[in-house]
Amino acid sequence: MQTGEKSLVFQGGFGISETIFVQDFISFPSVLMKACSPLVYQLFNSMFSIMKYLNKIALITLPVILFTYETSCQPGSTGFISPEVKSDRTVTFRFLAPDAKEVKLSTQFVAEQKNMLKDDKGLWSITLGPVEPDIYPYCFVVDGIQVADPRNSWIFPNEGFQNSLVEISAENPQVYTIQNIPHGTVSYRYYYSDELGTRPIVIYTPPGYEQSLNEKYPVFFLLHGTTDTEETWTKVGRANIILDNFIAQGKTKPMIVVMPYGRAFPVISKGSGSLRNCDNLQEFQKDFKNYILPYVEKNYRVRTDREGRAVAGFSGGGGTSLYIGLGNPDLFAYVCGYAPGMRKEEFDRNNAVPFADPELTNSRLKLF
User: Fold this and answer.
1) How far apart are CA 271 and CA 307, in angstroms?
2) CA-CA to 15 of 20 to 30 Å: which in 39, 42, 81, 289?
3) Are 154 and 164 in contact (CB under 8 A)?
4) Rounded-to-integer distance, Cα 82 and Cα 148, Å
5) CA distances in angstroms from 254 to 18, 210, 218, 251, 257, listed in the order given
6) 151: buried, middle or exposed (CB in 10 Å: 19+, 13-18, 0-12)?
7) What tens digit of pLDDT does each residue of 351-367 get?
8) Per-residue pLDDT averaged across 70-89, rounded?
9) ∠ at Cα 242 (199, 366), nearest 5°?
10) CA max distance for the chain
11) How many whole angstroms separate alpha carbon 185 and alpha carbon 66?
12) How far apart are alpha carbons 209 and 211 in whole angstroms?
């Protein structure tokens, strides 16, 4: 890469022979649960009895608690599947909305939103394809409002959009296909930061980690895109499944993968823009050095030398990974950005450390 008279080669890798890209789209289905149970009645009755006994107040207004429970069908339906993927790689999407005037499908495997057709029971549907094998986000647009598929529990963890996910399988296993091989463990953990409070972190340990008690593993810090969360790499990108497959095929060494939440919330608001904005970079780097790295090294058998560490990220997380990785050559020998977010006006500022001595920076980084 060249910028004026400055040159710098961004090099990355970690024994992984392929680069995986994850789409920066999303989803959160709204799930309502409906049913008043005997337990709720007993709770209200006990609350009233206690207050009456204590005689603390003359008038009590009890809150109304409404639980909703959604069965396998949307209300009023007789049962249907959505999405329904057939062996010929066509896929049918369905959405029950008797009172809706218009329902469209929005998905990445077609260029524009597609109108769905409504039957006499108020069930909207559309069949598309054949579709190229992959994992795709999609949503319904109901009278202009974007919603996830209420019949599909597979969602895209994200703080910005509402999408569900569908997998179109290939004839042969893909790099992300779950196969009958040894699998690693995905753990949901928490660490505490004095500045940011309790923080979520997802950690993958490879097959055999629990048995290899004397072995230390290389550690790969994997950062998500701007509106994604710490869950996106496993629930959407299937990073754990990809590594399981690569390890089984001998394409990569067993490693531990650390996937933290990348926004320095609440110091940095969730509406403040890209993760690679300067204020978030500063706060996240501080959190990484002071809390994430010490937490991982205390609780997991990881290598602590720079040759045993890698950092990479996608989109805004890609910009963050370049900032942290290239700016801390004593910590990382492997640095990579997947479609990294970085604006022209930020380029010199965010790369001040590697640009100060490009030859030294390049000499410290490992090749694929």
Assistant:
1) 36
2) 289
3) yes
4) 11
5) 15, 13, 8, 10, 10
6) buried
7) 899 999 999 888 889 86
8) 73
9) 80
10) 82
11) 37
12) 5
Q: What is the band of 61 on the pLDDT scale with cuts at 50, 70, 90?
A: very low
Written as six digits, the tokens of 150 are: 């209420």
Instruction: Collect all residues with Cβ–Cβ distance below 8 Å to 307 and sequence separation of at least 6.
Output: 333, 366
Three-state SS for 85? strand
Nearest-angstrom CA–CA distance, 128 and 87: 13
* Mean pLDDT, the chain, whole residue set: 82
Full set of structural domains in the chain with CATH: 2-20+175-364 (3.40.50.1820), 84-168 (2.60.40.10)
DSSP string, 277-293: SHHHHHHHHHHIIIIIH
Specify whether the backbone of 69 is left (phi greater than 0), alpha (psi in -120 to 50) or beta: beta
Distance in angstroms (rounded) separating the CA atoms of residues 309 and 302: 9
Tokens, residue 342:
């970085």
- Residue 314, strand partner residues: 338
Rg (alpha carbons) of the chain, rounded to whole number: 25
Half-sphere exposure of residue 5: CA atoms within 13 angstroms, side-chain side: 2
C-alpha to C-alpha distances, 157 to 104, 196, 340, nearest whole angstrom:
22, 21, 20
pLDDT of residue 347: 84
SS3 47: helix
3-state secondary structure at position 200 = strand
Output the CA torsion sign for 117, 121, 122, 128.
Answer: negative
- The per-residue pLDDT for range 247-287, each reduced to its tens digit, is 999 999 999 999 999 999 998 888 877 888 888 999 999 99
Candidates 222, 311, 231; CA nearest to 12 is 311
Under the phi-then-psi rule, with left for phi > 0, alpha for psi from -120 to 50, and beta for the rest, what region is 122? Answer: left
